[in-house]
Write a structure and sequence with these properties.
Elements (H helix, E strand, L loop, with lengths): L19 H6 L15 E7 L5 E7 L1 H5 L3 E5 L24 E2 L5 E7 L2 H8 L3 E6 L6 H7 L7 E5 L2 H7 L2 E9 L11 E6 L5 E5 L4 H12 L6 E5 L14 H14 L3 E4 L2 H7 L5 E10 L5 E13 L5 H10 L10 E9 L13 H19 L3 H7 L20 H11 L2 H14 L3 E14 L8 E8 L5 E5 L8 H13 L6 E3 L2 E2 L14 H28 L7 E3 L2 E4 L2 E3 L1 H10 L5 E7 L4 E3 L4 E3 L3 E14 L5 E10 L7 H20 L30 E6 L25 H12 L16 H13 L3
Parallel strand pairs: 1-12, 10-11, 14-15, 18-19, 28-29
Antiparallel strand pairs: 1-5, 2-4, 2-6, 3-5, 7-15, 8-13, 9-10, 9-12, 11-20, 13-14, 16-27, 17-18, 17-24, 21-22, 22-23, 25-26, 27-28
C-alpha cells in the first residue's frame, strides 16, 4: 500500500521543481512557444462593447475585408452545438440573439498575423437594443435574478438557540472578487488531422472537458479530438472552465479552414472576457455566552455569479461547507443566495468559495471578541471543534481535528501573549500609526464535492533500458504536481527520480479525467500512478523470483538493484531480461477516492475524505492619515501530512498566502453601471509584488503531520488551504482600525482593505457615539 513505510527513497525529499531550470532560463515551452507551422492562422475575438442588450444585427463586411483576414466565424458557422459551458448548457461560444455581458464574444477572426487579427476584430458593426443591466448583488437581489434556488444547510434549532443565548449581535461583511492574473494568459493551438480529427494544445486545467466541448461544438466524437497540456504559466482556477472558449474557437477555425489556428489573448481582453472570484456579501446573527462560545448562529451568504451558471453552484456550496472553519456551531443555519447578473460569469478560483465562507465566521469571531472584551484568539480557541463537539453543519463528523494542537504550537513558538502586549503598548504610544495582530486557523475540506469527479487514471511505461515514461490525468500549472507524482513512481521501483520521464498530459493516453482542481491533483493522480507502477513492480518481482529463485514476496527493490534469490540485479538489467522474457512492462492505474458521499438535496453527507489544517499569525501597521498599511510579520504553521516534497509544499504555502493577502488588501475589481470592467490591466489592478512580502515571514510545515486517511504516502493536499491563512492579515487590519477608537466596537471594514476603505472604517468608528 502507498502508506507503507519504505527505506528512504524519492518521496518526502525536497527536490526542485522538474521545470525550475527551464523556467529560469526561458526554455520551458508553453503554447505560444511551439514553433509555428506553415499556414498558421492567428485568432482574435470580436467582443461586445456594451452590456446586456438585444443583438439586432452584426455587420462583419469590414472585418472580412481587412488585410490578412482569412476567415470570420460566428454562431451560424458552428456545425454542432453553440455551447462551451461545463455543466448547465447555458454558455454559448458566440452570442446569438442576446448579449449577456460586456466582453462577450460575438465572432472570431482568423488572420495571417496577430496584429492583423486584433485590428480586424475591432471593425465589426454591431447594432443592439440595450436592455436593463443587473450588475450588483443588490440589483440582482431586488430583481429576484438567480442562477438557482436558494440553498439551506442546517443542524439544530438556530432560532431557539439565538433566542436563549445570553448575548446576541448581528453584522455584515462584503468581499470583492479577484482576477486570477496568471502570467501566461489564455492560449490554445489547434491542428487539423485526417478524417476531421483535431489536435489541441491548450493552457487548461481540464483537458478532458476541453476535448468534450470541442467535440460538441464540432459535432465530432470524443475520440476525434485530442487535447494536450505540457504546462501552464499559472491558472489558479481560471483555466478550469475558462480555457474552453479559446481552445474550441481554435478547433472550429482549424476544422473550417483546414489550417492550424492559434490564439493568445491580449491581457486586457483576457481580463475582460474571463470570470473572476465571486464577490460575496455576508450577514450574520449570532448568540453566545460570557466566554464568547457560540450557542446559535444564522449566516446568510449572497454571491454575484454572473450571466451563466459556470461552476457557481459548487462554488457557493463550498462557501457553505466552510462557513464553520474550525469551529463547533451547536445550532446553525447557513443560507446561500446565488445571484445572476449581467457581468462575465464568475468561476473557480483557489479555494473555490472556501475563502468567502471562512471569512464570514472569522468576522463573527472578531465581533464576539470585541463585544465581550476578550482576546480574539481566546474566543477562537473556545469555539474549536473537540470530542463531543465535532459535527459539521452538513452532518459530517470531524475525526482528524488537529487545529487545537497547531494553534497552541504556533502561539507558543511566536510568544503570542508577549506580541499582543507589545502591540497594545505600541498603540498606546502612537497616534498616527496603529498596529494589529491576529492568529487565525484554517480547516479546509479535501475532495471534489461533486462525488464523481474524485477519480483519476495514469499510464506508466517501463522501457527495456530501465527508463520510465509517466503519464497521468493531472496538469502542471507551476504547482509541482509532476515532480511529486514522478517521485511516487520512482519510489515504487527504488530508482532515482531522473529515470522518470515527465511528459505532457494527453486525452489519448488517459481518458475522462477530472480537472486538476480542488487541491486533489497529487492525491488522485499520485495514487493512480502508484497503482500503475505497483502493477509493473509485481510483474517484475514475479519474473525475478522465477529467474533467480525465492518467492515474489521476498523480492526487494533497492537503490543498489533488485534483490532476488541472493542475486542483486541492476534495475535496467532486470528490465532488459523481463522484456526478453515477454513480460509486459506497461500498465494503467486508477484511483477513486473512498468513503465520500453527499446528498446535495439535503446538504448532508461526507463530501470530504479529510481536512487540511493550518494557522497563521500576522502583524500589520496602518497609517491613520493615509489609510496605507503594511504587513510587518507573518508566522505560519501548516499541516501537509507527510509531505511528498517539502520544498514544493513550502512554496505553495508562501504563494497561497501572498495571493490571499492580495485578495484581501490590494486587488480591487471595479465595474461601471453597464457591467464593464474598468480595472482590466496591471495599471489599474494591483496584485502583490515582492515589496509586499512581509520582511519577517517564517513558514514551517508541521513536523507531526500525518494523514489519518490512507492517502498517497499519508500526505495532505496543499494547493488551496494556505490561501485562507491570509485571513489573519484582514483580521489584524480590523484590530488595527479598532485601535484608532478603543471601546467603540468592531469597525465596518470590508475587503479588499484598500487605503480608502481603511480610512472610511476609521471615520465610521470615530463617528460612533459622537
Amino acid at each position: 500500500m502507498a502508506d507503507v513505510d519504505r527505506p528512504a527513497g524519492a518521496v518526502h525529499q525536497p527536490l526542485r521543481h522538474d521545470s525550475a531550470e527551464a523556467h529560469v532560463a526561458g526554455r520551458a515551452h508553453y503554447v505560444d512557444d511551439v514553433p509555428e507551422s506553415p499556414g498558421l492562422l492567428h485568432l482574435a475575438f470580436g467582443l461586445a462593447t456594451d452590456g446586456h442588450a438585444k443583438l439586432l444585427s452584426l455587420d462583419l463586411a469590414a472585418v472580412r475585408a481587412a488585410p490578412g483576414v482569412v476567415a470570420v466565424l460566428t454562431a451560424a458557422d458552428i456545425p454542432g452545438l453553440n455551447d462551451v459551458s461545463p455543466v448547465a448548457g447555458d454558455d454559448p461560444l458566440f452570442a446569438e440573439d442576446e448579449i449577456l455581458y460586456p466582453g462577450q464574444p460575438l465572432f472570431v477572426v482568423a488572420a495571417t498575423g496577430v496584429a492583423a487579427a486584433r485590428r480586424a476584430a475591432r471593425l465589426g458593426k454591431v447594432e443592439t437594443a440595450p436592455l436593463p443591466a443587473l450588475v450588483t448583488i443588490a440589483q440582482a437581489r431586488a430583481a429576484g435574478s438567480v442562477i438557482e434556488d436558494t440553498q439551506r444547510m442546517a443542524r439544530g434549532d438556530a432560532d431557539a438557540a439565538l433566542a436563549a443565548a445570553p448575548h446576541r449581535l448581528s453584522g455584515r461583511l462584503e468581499m470583492g472578487g479577484q482576477e486570477h492574473f496568471y502570467l501566461e494568459g489564455q492560449a490554445a493551438l489547434a491542428t487539423p488531422g485526417e478524417g476531421g480529427q483535431v489536435h489541441i494544445l491548450s493552457s487548461t486545467q481540464h483537458p478532458s472537458e476541453v476535448q468534450h466541448l470541442a467535440a460538441k461544438v464540432l459535432g465530432l466524437s470524443h475520440a476525434d479530438v485530442t487535447v494536450e497540456v505540457r504546462r501552464m504559466g499559472g491558472a489558479f482556477g481560471g483555466k478550469e472552465t475558462q480555457a474552453a472558449a479559446c481552445a474550441v474557437a481554435c478547433a472550429l477555425v482549424a476544422a473550417k479552414t483546414g489550417r492550424p489556428a492559434k490564439i493568445r489573448l491580449d491581457r486586457d481582453d483576457d481580463m475582460v472576457l474571463t470570470g473572476k472570484r465571486h464577490e460575496f456579501e455576508v450577514a450574520y446573527d449570532v448568540g453566545f455566552d460570557d466566554q464568547g462560545r457560540i450557542e446559535g448562529i444564522r449566516i446568510a451568504l449572497a454571491s454575484r455569479c454572473g450571466a451563466t451558471a459556470d461552476l457557481s453552484p459548487a462554488i457557493n456550496d463550498r462557501a457553505m461547507f466552510h462557513a464553520d472553519n474550525c469551529y463547533w456551531l451547536p445550532a446553525v443555519e447557513i443560507v446561500s443566495h446565488r445571484l445572476k447578473t449581467h457581468t462575465v460569469s464568475n468561476t473557480a478560483f483557489r479555494g473555490f468559495g472556501g475563502p468567502q465562507g471562512m471569512m464570514a465566521i472569522e468576522r463573527v469571531m472578531d465581533a464576539v471578541a470585541v463585544a465581550r472584551g476578550l482576546d480574539p484568539l481566546a474566543v477562537r480557541r473556545a469555539n474549536l471543534y473537540a470530542p463531543g463537539r465535532d459535527i459539521t453543519p452538513y452532518h459530517m463528523t470531524v475525526t482528524d481535528n488537529v487545529a487545537p494542537e497547531l494553534i497552541a504550537e504556533l502561539a507558543a513558538r511566536t510568544d503570542y501573549a508577549a506580541r499582543r502586549a507589545a502591540v497594545e503598548a505600541f498603540n498606546a504610544g502612537h497616534k498616527v500609526l496603529k498596529k494589529g495582530l491576529a492568529l487565525t486557523p484554517v480547516k479546509f475540506g479535501i475532495s471534489f464535492t461533486t462525488t464523481h469527479l474524485n477519480q483519476a487514471g495514469a499510464l506508466v511505461l517501463v522501457y527495456a533500458d530501465g527508463s520510465i515514461h509517466l503519464n497521468h490525468g493531472g496538469t502542471e500549472m507551476g504547482q509541482g504536481l509532476m515532480i511529486k507524482v514522478a517521485q511516487v513512481v520512482a519510489d515504487v521501483f527504488a530508482v532515482p527520480v531522473e529515470r522518470v520521464r515527465i511528459v505532457a498530459t494527453r486525452t489519448d493516453k488517459v481518458p475522462n479525467t477530472s480537472a486538476t482542481a480542488a487541491s486533489s491533483g497529487a492525491d488522485l493522480n499520485g495514487m493512480a500512478a502508484f497503482n500503475a507502477a505497483e502493477t509493473i513492480r509485481t510483474r517484475l518481482a514475479e519474473f525475478a523470483a522465477s529467474k533467480f529463485g525465492g518467492t515474489p514476496e521476498a523480492v526487494r527493490f533497492t537503490r543498489d538493484g533488485v534483490v532476488a534469490g541472493g542475486e542483486v540485479t541492476p534495475f535496467d538489467t532486470l528490465c532488459r531480461l523481463a522484456h526478453l522474457g515477454r513480460v509486459s512492462l506497461s500498465a494503467t492505474g486508477f484511483y477513486a477516492t473512498p468513503h465520500i458521499a453527499y446528498d446535495r438535496k439535503t446538504h448532508r453527507g461526507r463530501p470530504f475524505l479529510y481536512f487540511a489544517y493550518g494557522a497563521a499569525l500576522s502583524e500589520v501597521v496602518i497609517d491613520t492619515l493615509t489609510g496605507e498599511h503594511k504587513v510587518l510579520a507573518v508566522d505560519i504553521l501548516h499541516d501537509v501530512g507527510r509531505s511528498l516534497n517539502p520544498a514544493i509544499d513550502l512554496g505553495q504555502v508562501e504563494g497561497g498566502f501572498v495571493q490571499g493577502m492580495g485578495w484581501l488588501t490590494t486587488e480591487e475589481l471595479v465595474y461601471d453601471a453597464r457591467g464593464r470592467l474598468l480595472t482590466h490591466a496591471p495599471s489599474t489592478y494591483k496584485i502583490p509584488t515582492a515589496g509586499d512580502r512581509p520582511r519577517h515571514m517564517d513558514i514551517r510545515l508541521w513536523d507531526r503531520g500525518r494523514n489519518t486517511e490512507p492517502t498517497i504516502h499519508r500526505s495532505k493536499a496543499v494547493g488551496e488551504p494556505p490561501f485562507m491563512l491570509a485571513i489573519s492579515v484582514f483580521s489584524a487590519l480590523t484590530q488595527a482600525v479598532a485601535a484608532t477608537a478603543p471601546g467603540r466596537g468592531l469597525p465596518d471594514l470590508d475587503a479588499p482593505a484598500t487605503p480608502e476603505r481603511i480610512l472610511a472604517a476609521i471615520a465610521g468608528l470615530k463617528a460612533l457615539h459622537g
